[in-house]
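Task card 7
Instruction: Convert sequence to structure tokens.
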Amino acid sequence: MGLYEFFYEYFVLPIKDNEGYNPVNTITYAIILGIAVILLYKMLKRMGIRVDERFFKALIPYIILGPLMRSMTDVGILRRTYLTVSPGGYFVIAAFAIASLYAVWRHTGPDEKLYPIYRDFGWVLVGGLLFILIINLDKVHFNWAVLKYFIPALLVAEAFIWVLTRKFKLIKDNGLLFYTHFYDATTTFVGIQFFGFWEQHVLARWLMGLLGTPAAMYLEKFVILLPVVWILDRLMEGEDEDLINFVKLTVFILGFGPGTRNFLIMLMGGG
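Output:
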């Protein structure tokens, strides 16, 4: 198999035929993500931008852009291309977020004014997508039945995390990450269990097949997330706080983005 055939089989066809992820592209995308996290962190350091609550709040609209664009693609409002589905769509959103941050930084420097300007520009982009959604509502077939399954499942899942936060400091200190990833797991569980959706990721598909239930997503999330936060809070204690915060921000995005995408696709009648 030549290089072109290898790339086409493992990277192009899964997107073209909506086949989900395979071990090859999963590992490749994970490596790309790791390199991107390091490079972006170094870029923020050189720009003098702290990874703190101000930065997180300013980044929220850009985090929303990805799942909103993907859900609009799945219901037929946006044309399905390599740049509107994952992972290409997330590369596009990341490019917008980075370019916007750099443009604002060039204007303000690492000044306090950077954060509201950067945030507001992101909300303008979200507003643009919402406008496209509104004028194409005839293509959306809202499935409100999703809520009668999603809300109870979410309450049970988040209540479980709440109980754990009362007993374990490590989970309490990282409650937002656990709540967010159990929200993501709930969207997957509801979509597969009640609405005939399927799981795209290799490990999750294997675990669901092994346990015979999409509820396996909760176990996967917990087993992966717990050692990650233990490494960040215990092994890396005293290390660069901005680096730890940036990794946690990335983990948050990896839960909130897919979870919100799944929820919107179900609610908007996509599939």
